[in-house]
Design brief:
It is a single chain. This protein has 388 residues and is α+β, with helices and mostly antiparallel strands. Among the domains are: 112 residues, Alpha-Beta Plaits, CATH 3.30.70; 147 residues, ZipA, C-terminal FtsZ-binding domain (Cell Division Protein Zipa, Chain: A, 2-Layer Sandwich). It is built from 8 helices and 18 strands. Strands 3, 4, 5, 6, 7 and 10 form a 6-stranded antiparallel beta sheet that branches. Helix 6 runs antiparallel to helix 7.
C-alpha cells in the first residue's frame, strides 16, 4: 500500500469519527431540552379548581336541565339551559359599629323572560316583519282585510307591548303591538303561490306601516318562490286519495239503511253534506263513507232504499298513523260487504284481495316515509295546512 492510500484512509477515518462525535453531542443537547420541557410545571393558583385531589375513577355525570320547547309547528327547538352559577354570600361589612348582625345580600334582579320567536314556518310560509313600536292594531284594518283576498292562507301575529307571548292580531281590538309578523302560505292543494301574490302582501303591509312611520322587512322574493315550487312538487307526489267500494254482486243493489246502521254503530258521524265520517280526537276525519248515487245519506232514508254501492275514502296525507287507519277502513269495508251481501272492490271495481291490500300498504309506507323525511308528517298541523 502506498503512502497516498494510507493518507486517504486516515483522512476518511478522521471524518467518520468527527461525524459520530458531532451526532453524539447533538443528541445529548436534545435530551436535555426534552427533559426540561416535560418537567412538572409550577402550579398556577388562578388555574387551580380545587386543592383537593379527585379520584381518577370518579365519574362526573352530565346533567340536562329542563329544556325550553318551542311548540310551534314546524320545528321544535329544544334549548338546553345552562345551570345558573351559585350566588356567593355577601361579605359582612368590616366596621366597628356593624355589630354581630349579618347583613343580608342584596337580592339580584331576576332576568327578564326571553321573548319567544315569532310564529313562522320557514318551510311553507313567506314572511313580512313590522317593527310596530307600540302601534295600534286598528292602523292595520285595511291591510288585514286586503290580505284575505290574496288566495292563500294568511296569518297575522303580534307581540303586545310589555307581553312575552305572541297572539293573533285582531285589528278591531284596542291593542298595541311591539312587533308584527304577517305570513302567507306558499302552497296548498290549489298549487304554489304566485309572484304577484307575494308582492301584493308586501305592498299592503308596507302601505299600512309607512303611514304610521314604521319599518317593514319583506323576505326575499326569489327564494320564497323557489321554496313554493319545491313544496308544491312534493305535495303533488304524495297527495293521494284511496277509495274502496262496497258494491252488489251481479246486477243487484245494496241496502242503504243497513249500511247507515252499520256506520253509526261503528262511531261514524253523518255530516250536513250527507257523508259519514269517522273523526279523531281533534275532530279531523280519518275516512269517509258516501253513496254512489247522487242522493246523499240522510235521516229520511226509506227502509227499502238501495244503491249501486257505497265508497270509503281515505285522504292519505291528512291522516295520522295512516297504516293503522287504513287497516281499520278495510276491516269496516269488509263488514259492510258482509252485512249487505256485497263485495269489496278497488276503484277499478276489481275484487280487493289480501295481496292487493298489501300492495296498497307498501305504497302508503313509502309515501309516509317521504313525508317524514320532508318534515311534513302525515296528519300533522303542517300537513293539514298544506293539504287543505
Amino acid at each position: 500500500m502506498s503512502d497516498l492510500q494510507i493518507g486517504l484512509l486516515m483522512i476518511g477515518a478522521a471524518v467518520v469519527i468527527g461525524v459520530l462525535l458531532f451526532n453524539w453531542l447533538q443528541e445529548r443537547r436534545f435530551r436535555k431540552q426534552i427533559g426540561a420541557a416535560f418537567q412538572t410545571p409550577v402550579a398556577d393558583a388562578l388555574a387551580q379548581r380545587s386543592a383537593a385531589p379527585r379520584d381518577p375513577q370518579e365519574r362526573i355525570e352530565p346533567a340536562l336541565h329542563e329544556p325550553m320547547v318551542d311548540a310551534g309547528e314546524e320545528a321544535v327547538v329544544v334549548h338546553i339551559q345552562r345551570p345558573a352559577e351559585p350566588a356567593e354570600a355577601a361579605p359582612r361589612p368590616d366596621h366597628a359599629d356593624a355589630g354581630p348582625r349579618d347583613v343580608p345580600a342584596a337580592a339580584a334582579p331576576s332576568p327578564a323572560a326571553p321573548v319567544p320567536p315569532a310564529p313562522y314556518d320557514e318551510l311553507i310560509e313567506y314572511r313580512v316583519r313590522v317593527a310596530a313600536d307600540g302601534a295600534v292594531a286598528g292602523a292595520f284594518v285595511d291591510a288585514f282585510n286586503g290580505t284575505r283576498t290574496l288566495g292563500k292562507p294568511v296569518r297575522w301575529m303580534g307581540l303586545p307591548a310589555g307581553a312575552s307571548a305572541w297572539e293573533d292580531v285582531q285589528p278591531w281590538r284596542d291593542a298595541r303591538y311591539k312587533e308584527l309578523v304577517v305570513t302567507l302560505q306558499l302552497a296548498d292543494r290549489n298549487g304554489a303561490v304566485r309572484e304577484e301574490q307575494l308582492l301584493a302582501l308586501c305592498e299592503l303591509v308596507k302601505a299600512a306601516a309607512h303611514s304610521q312611520g314604521l319599518r317593514v322587512v319583506c323576505d326575499d322574493l326569489a327564494e320564497a318562490l323557489e321554496r313554493a315550487q319545491a313544496i308544491d312538487r312534493f305535495c303533488v307526489d304524495v297527495d293521494v286519495l284511496i277509495g274502496l267500494n262496497v258494491v252488489a254482486r251481479g246486477e243487484g243493489t245494496v241496502n242503504l239503511v243497513r249500511i247507515m246502521r252499520q256506520a253509526e254503530s261503528s262511531g261514524m258521524v253523518l255530516g250536513a253534506d250527507g257523508v259519514f265520517q269517522l273523526l279523531d280526537s281533534r275532530g279531523e276525519p280519518l275516512y269517509a263513507l258516501c253513496n254512489h248515487d247522487a242522493e246523499p245519506f240522510g235521516g229520511g232514508t226509506a227502509e227499502g232504499r238501495s244503491s249501486q254501492g257505497v265508497t270509503l275514502q281515505f285522504d292519505v296525507p291528512r291522516v295520522p298513523d295512516g297504516l293503522k287507519v287504513f287497516d281499520g277502513m278495510v276491516a269496516f269495508g269488509r263488514r259492510l260487504a258482509n252485512e249487505v251481501g256485497g263485495i269489496l272492490v278497488d276503484d277499478n271495481l276489481r275484487p280487493l284481495t289480501d295481496s292487493g291490500i298489501e300492495k296498497i300498504r307498501s305504497q302508503l309506507t313509502e309515501i309516509y316515509a317521504r313525508m317524514e323525511a320532508r318534515g311534513v308528517p302525515s296528519g300533522s298541523r303542517r300537513s293539514l295546512r298544506l293539504f287543505s
